[in-house]
Amino acid sequence: MSTDIQSTETGAKEITQELTNRSTGAFLSKEQRDYAIGRVNELVNKQLKAFEAKNPHPFKTRPGQNLDEKLVLLKTSKVKMIDLKDLKKACQLPFGDQTLWDKMFVWPKTPDQEAYDAVTKKLETFSLALFDRRDTAIDQIMLGTGAEANKFIAEFGPDGIDPRQPNAAKV
Questions:
Q1: Distance between CA atoms of residues 126 and 123, nearest Å
Q2: Do 57 and 113 touch, CB atoms closer than 8 A?
Q3: Full-prediction pTM beyond 0.85?
Q4: Is the separation of the CB atoms in 169 and 162 below 8 Å?
Q5: 87: which residues sit within 8 A by CB, 6+ positions away?
């Protein structure tokens, strides 16, 4: 029984020495954690900008349909009217009593709108995955060791790992 106590005390002394020895990188100071988190955020922003530069939108804003195009679609019956069967009052329409006729129909997307939406979806998917990885890295930095912090920081940046890939492929 005395050996169990002695080994426990020895283990406790070793843990205490590890905690007080900053050269091992076992734990980060507040300044080191703040720097690591700031660095991760900086690299995430660079990685996001690099991805956006490689995947530009085809137009500055999402293209719309002008009045003439909408009239042609109405004449050719390529639009559907919104479902009004369950509505009982005018205030339930999209804009109440001031509902515009062009809000009463479901308009098909143009090829330009589809191209713009495809790029937007790609950017959204990438950024959500990147921010999830960033949050995980920050959690690990806050809870982990100095060596782990360096490993997580190395995964970000314009040449970082593609966050959408589970096998950690380069972007």
A1: 5
A2: no
A3: no
A4: yes
A5: 93
In contact, 109 and 1? CB cutoff 8 Å? no
3-state SS, 100-141, equals CHHHCEECCCCHHHHHHHHHHHHHHHHHHHHHHHHHHHHHHH
State the Cα–Cα distance between residues 139 and 133, nearest whole angstrom. Answer: 10
Q: Give CA–CA dist 47/155, Å, rounded.
A: 10
Q: Which tokens is 31 given?
A: 């300044």
pLDDT tens for each residue of 102-149: 777 888 988 999 999 999 999 999 999 999 889 888 877 777 665 666
Residue 89: what are its φ and ψ, rounded to 5°?
Answer: -130, 155
What token pair was written down for 168? 């950690």
Query: Could you report the per-residue pLDDT of 68-110, keeping only the tens digit for each?
Result: 888 888 889 888 887 777 766 666 666 666 667 777 788 898 8
Q: CA-CA distance, 78 to 109, in Å (whole number)?
A: 11
Distance, in Å, from the CA atom of 88 to the CA atom of 80, rounded to the nearest integer, reads 20
What ranges do the domains of the chain cover?
Answer: 27-64+110-171, 65-108
